[in-house]
User: What shape does this take?
Amino acid sequence: MSDKSSAKIAKFRDYSRVRYFDYILLGVVIMLLFFGLVMLYSSSAYTASIRYGRPTYYLRKQLLFIVLGFLVMLVATVIKYDVLKRLVKFIYWGCVFLNIIVLFIGRSGNGSTRWIRVGGVQVQPSELMKIGIIIFFAYYISTHTESLGRNAFNIRILAYLFIATIFVFITNLTTAAIIAFIGFGMLLIASRNKKPLYALIIFALIVVAAAAFFVISKSNAEPGSYRLRRIYYWQHPEKATQNAGFQVLQGLYAIGSGGLFGKGIGASATKLGNLPESQNDMIFSVIVEELGVFGVVCLILMYVLLLWRIYMIAVNAKDMFGSFLAIGVFLHLSVQVILNMLVVTNVLPNTGVTLPFISYGGSSLLCTMFEIGVVLSVSRQIRLDRIDLEEDF
Assistant: This one.
């Protein structure tokens, strides 16, 4: 064996002891959070001044959430993700329990009952359920590899998914759909026999189409209830009034006035009392108005980079459990980003989906930061031992 080959083997052995850490993923998260703070202050300063007398009210609270989020992410990153295997039943059933009790002691807001107060802090259990289903499905799939694709296995795991979503569905239809998408997507990726799952997808689409047709026809006849009004004004945004459908219409005005490069940061007109909750679900419309198509493309590219890094971690994870943890986070963030943008542009009815890392909110941000911490923990277990030795032999 040549000296060059011996040196290559020695280098390989050195790398095999080195742990990987995805600094690119961490950097993208920091950029998104910084961008979110800028746009949050721009979109909320007027509303905060009117409501609380301080233009920085929402900004300060979001900064606190970010600090707490980084602490949560740090803990999740440092602790080996294998510990989640020992806690999986507690996490899953704990999340289910919280989503049950929110039906009885939940606090209401904007027509929905989604929060419970714990020690002076409001928690949204439906956000926790996203984490619960990712961890549970990753564990269940990785510990039943011999059963993947069998109908009996599919029925068992889908029963757990049904339990996870049914109580969320009562209070938050959109979040229930996101949870169902995450769980079913993880199962579809893992399954060796996808035909029964494809058949189930077709059946579900038929049911959803029939239900949508019924709801739309009902909303045209009597748009009286809270949810039916949302459907009605999704179909007819031009009929919005100050009391109903106004948010969607103003969001469309904001998007339409953005142009290629926008009006400039802070120059949005619709956020000045015309766009309700502009710092929450509708912040994307302010981004379009102030930064234009160029700003939106930059934001989308940041999300694409974020998802690409999570995908690479999933592909290179040391075990199946870690891989499916990253896959679950990938599915969650991708569908939530897409849903928010579709809602704001009125492609879908207004459903109250936050834009990850950008929208104001504690529960959503803390849960998302925990998920990123778990993915970074998976990345820390990747060994740098994939060096092609054959080139020099």
About this structure: The radius of gyration is 23 Å. The beta strands are 107-109, 112-118, 121-123. Residues 221 and 232 are 9 Å apart (CA to CA). Confidence is low (pLDDT under 50) at residues 386-393.
